[in-house]
Specification:
The chain has 360 residues and is mostly helical. It has 13 helices and four strands. Helix content is 36%, strand content 3%.
């Protein structure tokens, strides 16, 4: 009997000790850092209605771990030379990753000569042309360019890497995303591009009307604008596909000085070295274009109505004017209908905000 009592007592003591040990382990387990709780690994998002983008099936498919890392890097001002600007400074989520100013402003308040274009729905593109002049051939190339630009983010790739290495907290997330803690400019570009590919827009009123056959999704004016877009105005010559862009270059005469016979910005020809490309710029997406004002590469056109007016008068005359750009003969009500159609391309799925905390 005493032996049995002793065994039971020992068992109770052992159980209590184990319980205390488990409690101690639970109490001493470090909590996840704030930046990790704020920015967890998430499954890849589905392409919204009308985008026809399936991220997992892409040849350069992003991974959830790279997307999370890229989201931090996209918004982190420590990638710039003086810690004052990030990719998101010019590519603002509330403006569908464009900006509300005619020109971008970088480190030390330096103002560039072009407006930052949106990159939504560029996970899939007809041609691999990025930037207004197409100087980058991938989202990865596009991600690295502004970091090293002395007017934009002003950092060398070496100084950017050093800054990230100094931030000890980033190492484990590079390991999760790429297998090792090594930080390289290529990995930074891949992570930022992975995040950018997830910024997809769809389920706009036009999508719900056309694809879901919801006649109440848009007004009669929008439906009239749709017919004009594909017929009389022929906007779909260049604004085609699900992203409403041909990813190619066209001269509208924007920035041409009739007195000097020169363009303030020669555009694509500086890259292609082809004189025929002078004054030509990449066709921007019309997805969420109502959020992109002002318009054109130089932000010189204030409203969508003024954009349609530019096309209606046949662009601005110059020796390189694209032959597709001709006077349209639209009436004032037809101009308004086209504007209404473009406004109805505002979608959802791309929205985001700056992370509340970053790796330290």
């Amino acid at each position: 009997m005493r032996t049995l009592v002793g065994v039971l007592a020992l068992a109770l003591v052992t159980t209590a000790a184990c319980s205390r040990s488990e409690d101690a382990t639970t109490k001493t387990a470090p909590p996840a850092p704030a930046w990790e709780t704020d920015n967890p690994v998430k499954p890849l998002p589905e392409g919204p209605l009308g985008s026809e983008i399936q991220l997992a099936s892409l040849p350069n498919a992003p991974t959830p771990e790279r997307v999370r890392l890229g989201r931090w890097l996209f918004y982190d001002t420590r990638l710039s030379a003086d810690g004052s600007v990030a990719c998101a400074t010019c590519h603002r989520p509330e403006h569908a990753f464009s900006e509300p100013t005619p020109h971008s402003t970088g480190v030390k308040g330096q103002e560039g000569g072009r407006k930052s274009p949106s990159f939504i729905n560029e996970a899939v593109t007809l041609y691999p042309n990025f930037f207004w002049d197409g100087r980058a051939s991938s989202l990865e190339d596009q991600a690295l360019g502004p970091i090293a630009n002395p007017i934009e983010m002003g950092a060398t790739h070496e100084s950017m890497i050093a800054s990230l290495q100094k931030t000890k907290g980033y190492a484990q997330y590079f390991k999760e995303a790429f297998g090792t803690e090594e930080i390289t400019k290529e990995r930074v570009a891949q992570a930022i591009a992975a995040y950018e590919r997830t910024r997809m827009s769809g389920n706009s009123p036009v999508d719900r009307w056309r694809l879901n056959k919801d006649e109440a999704a848009v007004s009669d004016q929008v439906k009239q604008g749709y017919e004009l877009f594909f017929n009389k105005a022929a906007c779909n010559q260049c604004h085609l596909g699900n992203s409403y862009t041909d990813s190619s270059f066209h001269n509208l005469g924007v920035g041409y000085d009739g007195k000097t016979k020169k363009f303030k910005d020669v555009g694509r020809s500086a890259i292609s070295k082809n004189a025929a490309d002078e004054g030509a710029f990449k066709t921007p997406t019309l997805r969420d274009c109502a959020r992109h004002a002002p318009y054109m590469h130089d932000g010189s056109v204030a409203t969508l109505k003024e954009v349609v007016a530019l096309y209606n008068r046949g662009g601005e005359a110059n020796p390189r004017l694209d032959p597709k750009v001709k006077k349209l003969g639209l009436t004032p009500s037809e101009v308004d209908a086209l504007v209404a159609f473009m406004e109805a391309l505002n979608g959802e799925g791309f929205m985001d905000a700056k992370p509340a905390a970053f790796p330290q």
